[in-house]
Amino acid sequence: MSKPIVAIVGRPNVGKSTLFNVLAGSAISIVKDTPGVTRDRIYADCTWLSHSFTLIDTGGIEPDSSDIILAQMREQAQIAIDTADVIIFIVDVRQGLVDSDSKVADMLRKSRKPVVLAVNKVDSFEKFGNDVYEFYNLGIGDPVPVSAASRLGLGELLDEVAKHFTPDQYDDEEDDRPRVAIVGKPNVGKSSIINKMLGENRVIVSDIAGTTRDAVDTEVIHNGTEYVFIDTAGLRRKSKVKEDIERYSIIRTVTAVDRADVVLMVIDATQGVTEQDAKIAGIAHDRGKGIIVVVNKWDAIEKTDKTIYEYTNKLKETLAYMPYAEYVFVSALTGQRMQKLFDLIDMVRENQTLRVATGVLNEIVTEAVAMQQPPSDKGKRLKIYYVTQVSVKPPTFVVFVNDKELMHFSYTRYLENKIREAFGFRGTSLKFIIRERK
Ligand code: GDP
Ligand code: GDP
């Protein structure tokens, strides 16, 4: 099930970053950063009451270049229109209604995307009035007074946002076709890979109607199985600003990955793995997706019989935070190993949804505990009572222990390795939740 995307749009200094940080930080849990991957806050996974959504920040605008502010705002708004399900348009009550607000509001209204109008910096909720109501003139609905800095009105704001979530639309439970996202930097060969896969298989429809986002979905039948490929390749934005391009590509990746079971992380063999690749892969990792690292353009490098081995080791070093990832070396040009790609997708997807019986699981864990004593501290030793799998996508285990504090990261890792030895789970991350039972 994928989450709705919420984007924040507004002029410089109205309080976008403040709002983003408050929403991402407090009411809300942000997925912990992937070790070794620096990440600016382009997106955050949030929950509000029973709703989960992904908040995206469409980007900063240089406040000192007033002549290009409107152009940048339009660009930002366009990114939001392209990717978001709901847009929070934020204005500043202290500055009042500004011409560029009206222009951007026109653009948002024409897009027919749901827009929630937040009037920020209303620091006193006792005496707001016409200064807030003035924003009705934007013609995009009721202004919601908030103070991002003082955390006022945020519940009302999120209620308005959540009204636009349409659960059915994101509920893919009924749809059990494998969903595969193809992500990676520009020019690594994403389009070529998808074309090759389409070329050799039957394509049913492309551009499925009813999806509100601009990701291009393509249905493909291979060996009697229907797959949905979610492609980010064709969707490039032209921008003069390098940061904007990168930001947009990350936002696109987040929205595509969200909807997928398995992610094909494409890298270019001739370039090796870069920091941007690690960042992109981190998105899939954070979200617990199945991951296949597809090293493309394998035809273009010189190799000996050791090259694959050496190359894999190098990749694993850079992507050390996801040791479970599968690797495959392909050429979209020659078609080398493109068939194997489908086999890997099937395998990883099965592992994403694999359920292990509790009895067998506890046999493995008991054996593991006997082989390596659990850690102790100040004379108290960790006891593991019981382990059970509670969900899939990714497979998630609850471990009942005597004292959570005693459960070291390294011991969880040890148990994970034992579980992997027994059941495989190749290509998927595993999640462990530690619970105390006295
Ligand atoms: P952005 O450029 O739209 O991201 O704006 P920022 O989040 O950086 O905020 C611009 C300025 O407005 C900062 O100095 C914030 O501290 C201030 N600010 C943000 N929210 C509020 C608010 O609710 N009340 C007041 N008085 N100031 C705020
Ligand atoms: P995208 O931006 O990730 O969708 O990348 P494209 O599919 O547009 O490919 C970028 C460039 O790499 C094009 O010039 C392709 O012809 C080339 N390319 C793609 N796959 C391969 C491959 O397997 N081998 C070689 N040698 N070139 C490739």
UniProtKB/TrEMBL annotation:
<dbReference type="InterPro" id="IPR005225">
    <property type="entry name" value="Small_GTP-bd"/>
</dbReference>
<feature type="binding site">
    <location>
        <begin position="57"/>
        <end position="61"/>
    </location>
    <ligand>
        <name>GTP 1</name>
    </ligand>
</feature>
<feature type="domain" description="EngA-type G">
    <location>
        <begin position="178"/>
        <end position="353"/>
    </location>
</feature>
<protein>
    <recommendedName>
        <fullName>GTPase Der</fullName>
    </recommendedName>
</protein>
<comment type="subunit">
    <text>Associates with the 50S ribosomal subunit.</text>
</comment>
<dbReference type="InterPro" id="IPR027417">
    <property type="entry name" value="P-loop_NTPase"/>
</dbReference>
<dbReference type="InterPro" id="IPR003593">
    <property type="entry name" value="AAA+_ATPase"/>
</dbReference>
<feature type="binding site">
    <location>
        <begin position="10"/>
        <end position="17"/>
    </location>
    <ligand>
        <name>GTP 1</name>
    </ligand>
</feature>
<dbReference type="Pfam" id="PF14714">
    <property type="entry name" value="KH_dom-like"/>
</dbReference>
<comment type="similarity">
    <text>Belongs to the TRAFAC class TrmE-Era-EngA-EngB-Septin-like GTPase superfamily. EngA (Der) GTPase family.</text>
</comment>
<comment type="function">
    <text>GTPase that plays an essential role in the late steps of ribosome biogenesis.</text>
</comment>
<dbReference type="InterPro" id="IPR006073">
    <property type="entry name" value="GTP-bd"/>
</dbReference>
<dbReference type="Pfam" id="PF01926">
    <property type="entry name" value="MMR_HSR1"/>
</dbReference>
<keyword id="KW-0677">Repeat</keyword>
<feature type="binding site">
    <location>
        <begin position="231"/>
        <end position="235"/>
    </location>
    <ligand>
        <name>GTP 2</name>
    </ligand>
</feature>
<feature type="binding site">
    <location>
        <begin position="120"/>
        <end position="123"/>
    </location>
    <ligand>
        <name>GTP 1</name>
    </ligand>
</feature>
<keyword id="KW-0342">GTP-binding</keyword>
<dbReference type="InterPro" id="IPR031166">
    <property type="entry name" value="G_ENGA"/>
</dbReference>
<dbReference type="InterPro" id="IPR032859">
    <property type="entry name" value="KH_dom-like"/>
</dbReference>
<feature type="domain" description="EngA-type G">
    <location>
        <begin position="4"/>
        <end position="169"/>
    </location>
</feature>
<dbReference type="InterPro" id="IPR016484">
    <property type="entry name" value="GTPase_Der"/>
</dbReference>
<keyword id="KW-0547">Nucleotide-binding</keyword>
<dbReference type="InterPro" id="IPR015946">
    <property type="entry name" value="KH_dom-like_a/b"/>
</dbReference>
<feature type="binding site">
    <location>
        <begin position="296"/>
        <end position="299"/>
    </location>
    <ligand>
        <name>GTP 2</name>
    </ligand>
</feature>
<keyword id="KW-0690">Ribosome biogenesis</keyword>
<feature type="binding site">
    <location>
        <begin position="184"/>
        <end position="191"/>
    </location>
    <ligand>
        <name>GTP 2</name>
    </ligand>
</feature>
